[in-house]
Each structure stands twice: as structure tokens, then as C-alpha cells.
Amino acid sequence: MTSVRIEDDGPVRSLVLCRPLELNTITAGLRDELDEALLAADAEERVRVVLLRAEGRAFSAGFALEAGTTAQGGEGRDRVWDSVADLQMISTFARVWARLHDLSKPTVAAVQGWCVAGGTDLVLNADLIVAADSARFGYPPARVWGTPEAPWAWIARLGVERAKRYLFTGDEIPGPVAAEIGLVLECVPDEELEPRSMALAQRIGRLPLNQLRMMKLLCNQVNDHAYAPATSRLLGCLFDGIARHTQEGLDFVELARADGAMAAVRRRDEPFADYGQRPAT
Fold it and tell me: Cα separation of 42 and 104, whole Å?
């Protein structure tokens, strides 16, 4: 079953996450399809801009927790946790998400609904993000069982103070607030998300490809020297594994095995309320 659909409109290639019933949760299959699609888009000269979209009511609700908790739950029976193997595994995802940043062509993302946890690992690598009013960003695994794979992107977009504020709490960021604080470029009504993001991509696509490549390289050189994305990803992926193997992380897995992954997520979130406002229902 296809997880990523490819659509072309002039110089714009849309890559559409198409697992709407699963809230576009991240699997190894989605990772591999997106990797192949990004490499193909970069190689085709007629493509000047990549637009990442998603079907359904969520851009991505993060990693598919059922598979992750089941795998981790069985680790201790035969051998202890292998931090190097875990780092290698999670890095296979982080390297694909990083292509949105490293691609020689501009990348634009259009986000509606939930974009949390691993969904932010993915989308914050895009050059430009347009959000819908319904968009909700955040990294709730910061509370237990995870760290961002690309923490540099949070700091680059928000600054150190605001990045710490949201990563210290795991609180959600509604679309309009995300635009106000600089996490995304702009926020628009849901019905305008697709035409607005496509219009932006088409406007970018009017420039010669060599000019776009030069401009992206110029901007990325500043980013890469200021924030060291490769080092940030290495530490983020390593600490993600460590966070999943703390006592609290192991308790989360046991709860997920007993009551189901979504019950564990709800229990993790129960003691927390957003600072200054109630989380969206």
C-alpha cells in the first residue's frame, strides 16, 4: 500500500502522505517511500520545488507507537539494550527527514491538524512551512519516552528561550501561535491551506533552478555553521534512545503493552496542562 503519492504541477512536485486513517503515523515503509521520492525529485531538472502535504485530519501524529512499544517491550528477554544499534535504527529516519533541509531545491510543507512528536522531526526540516488554523505542533514525548531527532531546528526557528519553553513542557503550539512565534511562516484558514501553499511553491518555481539552488545553499551554509545540524541530529537520535530506556520510559512501555499504546499516551499527558491555556480538545 502506498504511503506517499507523487503529483506534478509545472515546476512543483507534491509529495503527499496518504495514510489518513492512521493519521499519517510514521512507519519504515513511509520513511523508505519518502526517501525515494525526495531523491527522485532532486534528480529531475524539471522539478524546481518540492511541496510536502498530507491527506486527512492530521499531517502526522508521529511514529506508530504500537510497533515501537512492542519492539522495545521484547528487548530485555534475550539481551540488554544496544545503544549503538538503537542509534543506527533511529538515524535511518532522521537522515530521510534531513533531506528536506539538505535537498538542493526549496522544500515547502503544508500542515493541517496534528503535527506532533516524530511529525515535527520530519516537517521542521522543510525550508518553509505553511500551517492551517487547525494545525497543532508539539513534542509531547519530551515528557517521557523521547527527545527530538533534530533539536537544532527548534532553536533555529524559535530561538533558545522559546525552544526550551516548549521542549521543557511538551506543550502544544496551535497554528496561529506557531506563526506568531516563528515556528512556521504563516497560518491560514484550513480551506486556504492547499491553494496558499501551492501558490507559494509556484511563485518560487518561477525562478531559474540554478538561482534557487544558489540561494538555498547560501542560506543553509549560515544555518549549518550556526546550528551544526549533523551534530544536533547525532545527539538527538542518541538521547531519544536513552530517553526510551529510562525507568520512566520502560514504565511507559509496560503500560502500553498492558493497556494499549494510545492509553499510555493519554496517561502520559494527563498530569499536564498547557501554560496559560487549556490544550485543544
Answer: 7
Q: In the numeric block, which cell numbers belong to residue 117?
A: 512528536
Burial class (CB in 10 A: 0-12, 13-18, 19+), 251: middle
The CB-based long-range contact list for 92-95 (8 Å cut-off, 24+ gap) reads: 92/31, 93/26, 93/31, 93/118, 93/121, 93/149, 94/121, 94/149, 94/150, 94/233, 94/236, 94/237
pTM over 0.85: yes
> Cα(140)–Cα(86) distance, rounded to whole angstroms?
21
**Other beta carbons less than 10 A from residue 14's beta carbon:** 22
CA-to-CA separations, 84 to 100, 147, 213, in angstroms, rounded: 25, 16, 35
pLDDT in tens, 205-251: 999 999 999 999 999 999 999 999 999 999 999 999 999 898 888 88
What the block records as the C-alpha cell of 1 is 500500500
